[in-house]
Amino acid sequence: MNVNGIRAALRKGMQTWLDEADADVVTLQEVRCPDELVHELLKGSGYTIAHTEAAAKGRAGVAVVSRLPVTATRIGNGDPYFDDAGRWIEADITLSDGSTLTTASVYVHSGEAGTPRQDDKYRFLDQMTVRMQELSAAGNHAVITGDLNVGHTERDIKNWKGNRTKAGFLPEERAYFDRFFGELGWVDVHRMLAGDVDGPYTWWSMRGQAFDNDTGWRIDYQLATHELAQAAKSARVDRAPSWGERWSDHAPLVIDYLLAE
Question: Which amino acids does the record list as binding Mg(2+) (predicted)?
Fold first, then answer.
């Protein structure tokens, strides 16, 4: 889930959600907080915390927090250009049957069409493609989670017609996802479980009536290797009951997997 700044999120109610969700593994994006403070804020939660902050203070930052044993962590997606960007962290998690689940928390650039920011986004997505192939070849369960800042299809954006020339719904961006779910063989688990419906959306602008009117985007994902996807049993978006009860401009995407009984 994109927390839009962990300190503010915790003040506004994120801790209540964490307690009620009682998840084995949680991934966080846009943490925007120094590493030592992240550990302090989540102290006593029972989670092992793997976090990387961005070199640019107050920007980005991603984390994987797990109640299951973490045996290894890796920062970055393999392109040194992004090593200190606070946009990719992986944790190898040991399941009860001894198998490994590699979980990545990822925050893709928002981008801006026709600017260097969009060039960075494409470079990141290029390397993400490479890393996904490497994870598939490794043979373990793997899931890439987070704010990927792309709506894949018209079902993923309420106002898709008005966003066809804007970052987040450009044909070039969407083509990466075509390849993820086609040639690379990964699965959009939320879409698999939700079916061919509008949304369910995970992000709404803080401006105007977007939240109240459900004028949202589905840009938060769990992309899983094929075998892991088959273990997914249910999915939900924990949308706040009202605008005033939101603790982020995103809502958590929660997926239950039945593994290693």
Answer: 2, 30, 147, 149, 249-250
Q: Which residues are annotated as a binding site for Mg(2+)?
A: 2, 30, 147, 149, 249-250
For the stretch 47-83, pLDDT in tens is 999 999 999 999 999 999 999 999 999 999 999 999 9
Helix-then-strand count for the chain, H and E = 7, 11
- What are the catalytic residues? 107, 147, 250
Q: Which domains does the chain have, with CATH numbers?
A: 6-257 (3.60.10.10)
What SS3 state is found at 250? Answer: strand
Q: What residues form the annotated binding site?
A: 2, 30, 147, 149, 249-250
